[in-house]
Amino acid sequence: MTTRLAFDLGAGSGRAVLGRLGSRRIELQEVHRFPNQPVQAGPRLHWDILRLLHELKQGLLQAKRHAGQEPASMAIDSWAVDFGLLGADGELLGNPVHYRDRRTDGVMERLRERHGDEWLFSRSGLQFLPFNTIYQLAAMSEQGSPQLKQAQTLLMIPDLLRYFLTGVKRQEFTNATTTGLLNPQTRSWDNELLKAAGVPVRLFAPLAQPGAAAGELTEALRGELGLGPIEVLCAAEHDTASAVAAVPALEDNFAYLSCGTWSLMGTEVPEPVLSAEALRYNFTNEGGVEGSWRLLKNIMGLWILEETRREWEREGHCPGYAELLQEVQALPAGGPLIDPDDSRFLHAGAMTPRIREWCRETGQPEPRGYGGYARCILESLALQYRYIFEQTEQASGRRFSGLHMVGGGIQNRLLCQWTADSLGLPVWAGPAEGSAIGNLAVQWIAAGELSGVREARRVIRDSFDVEQYEPSGGTGTSAMAAEAYGRFLALKEKM
Ligand code: LFR
């Protein structure tokens, strides 16, 4: 039995998870959990990268304490698209900026105008999201950023934290595929895209695949923490890539929803899908493990509810999650709906005024009370899931018999049930710790303790509870869900 350590960093919190692989069974132990709170400094919204490094160190200490010895290896996964820049001396030139910062306002539009959607999509295979790395770097380039001029190396967030621990600079593949600077056909950086964004080629090096060796903890760090050697590996460092690797599907043809701050819905495909349909639906092709691709779409997800709850907390009162969901259930169907993917919901700050505005613009009554807002958000998400599920079927040319949901969002049982109702198909929910498990699975595969993703998925299936939700009215969409979906589509049309 080997014990390995996963650091999984989400936009709201991070965790250090020890994984033990026995005979075809995985056991998890969360040894450290910490908040990940962005910091507004002047005009910029930043990640608190050094605090995250501090928390990684605490996680390493806790891992040794709980396991009784150093784990055999460790790896980091995190949210995508964000990065730090290093100078010639290897020092970090500036604090990484949060993807929800407004420095990219208007940048994507200008690049699309200049180069055309077909050209950008055929080269990068990436969906158009205003915060993609390419637009962040183009913003820096347009603004004549001194940091960009000095930079010698770009490291994505997990690459950067790993570099702080090991002194080794490596750019990992799955996360690189979220930048908009990588060509999925060559599977490497694309000089034409770099040129289009005004980004220096020198920042980029050959990519490391998930599972690749990435050094050891530096001696200085081992001295500081009193630790022995720990091998550091590349995980599938994009958290969504790790989550998809952990979907407990036994067949090749399945649909997934990685449910957290974001909801990422799609399917795994052997080759990138660069069709006109994929472009029209604004799908993305992000790299997965063992050469697979994740044809998927970002849905705004539970972010809207999380941000609404933060707004209520600032105002002095926010009902607990359980209480809130009870209120939601007590309300009748047929209340107001929003399009969760309207871009006005992307940025941080008070959400309820934006929800009211959307309702007003579409001629709906405003939600009432805490439960009213939460119901509006959750019902709209479940309906958007059906909308994107159908597009996933069309873009991939596949049909799915149900939906696998993984990630912390599955703890919201109401959302799982409403998703099953909305799709008229079963939902299989679990495991909740998808990204951490996928991170560990890649480490076990690299060590030869699991033969590959297929075996990993079977072992995950045997090790964790997967709860099945059937649509309330039996298979096929119930009349109530169909009515809501019809109304939802009509509202989308209006905007
Ligand atoms: C989910 C995720 C998404 C990515 C978004 C921003 O945690 O990684 O896949 O689009 O965060 O980085």
From TrEMBL:
**Family per UniProt?**
Belongs to the FGGY kinase family.
| Ribosomal protein is among the record's keywords | no
Domain Carbohydrate kinase FGGY N-terminal: start-end pairs: 5-244
Protein name as annotated: Rhamnulokinase
**Which part of the chain is the Carbohydrate kinase FGGY C-terminal domain?**
255-447
List the CDD domains: ASKHA_NBD_FGGY_RhaB-like
For the keyword Kinase, the answer is yes
Please name the taxonomic classification of the source.
Answer: Bacteria, Bacillati, Bacillota, Bacilli, Bacillales
What's a single GO BP term from this record?
A: rhamnose catabolic process
